Amino acid sequence: MSEIILIQHCQSEHHVNNMSGGWTDTPLTELGRKQAEMIGKKLKEVVDKNDFNLYSSDLLRASQTAEIVGSQLGGEVIHDQGLREINTGVAAGKTKDWARANKNPRTKSGFDLDYREFQDGESWREFYTRVCACMDRIYESEKDKNLVIVTHGGTLGYILAWWMKFEPEMIVNAYFSSSVGGITVLSQNSYQQNVVNKFNDTSHFDLFS
């Protein structure tokens, strides 16, 4: 495989209306739609439309980003629930204030892999295991294709950890923090080492600044 291009979804309603993230299913804002168009225009210059498959989380903010990007690239979107953000259980659809007030109590200081923030949600270990299983499945089935994957901030960070072959315990002390609309590019070199060629590139938004 030549490249995996990761895109963090663009600005969503939950970024501006005090709704929690995770599995809260909110659409893009008008700005988010414009951001997705700019990503599509940038990728159109570097992606061969006949040599890639476009995957996306099925949550609205990611799938809408992917649909707009796909309309520019000329590709259909393959939705995969495994690319969702961490499952926030009972906090899905709730405000940030509600989520802060209803987290499960922590039993350890620092980052706890097995901490389940919300009832019926995922622990960080379960989240990472799910992301790794999803990427193993996609990677195995698409070895001869480039991939464009639209997902969420937490998921994107864990895809990077998967690419770097992190054991679960290794994510206790490391995290890859990307931003809205950021583009990350992964590939392999001639030694078959997994390479991060570009991380969280947002230069396509320079016109907004």
Automatic annotation (TrEMBL):
- Listed InterPro entries: His_Pase_superF_clade-1 (IPR013078), His_PPase_superfam (IPR029033), PGM_Phosphatase (IPR050275)
Q: Give the EC number(s) under which this enzyme is classified.
A: 3.1.3.-
Pfam families xrefs = His_Phos_1 (PF00300)
Question: From which domain of life does this come?
Answer: Bacteria
Query: Mind listing the UniProt keywords for this protein, alphabetically?
Result: Hydrolase
Q: Return one GO MF term.
A: phosphatase activity
Quote the record's binding site residues for substrate. Answer: 61
One Gene Ontology cellular component annotation held by this UniProt entry:
cytoplasm
Name listed for the protein in its UniProt record: Histidine phosphatase family protein
Highest classification ranks of the organism: Bacteria, Bacillati, Bacillota, Bacilli, Bacillales
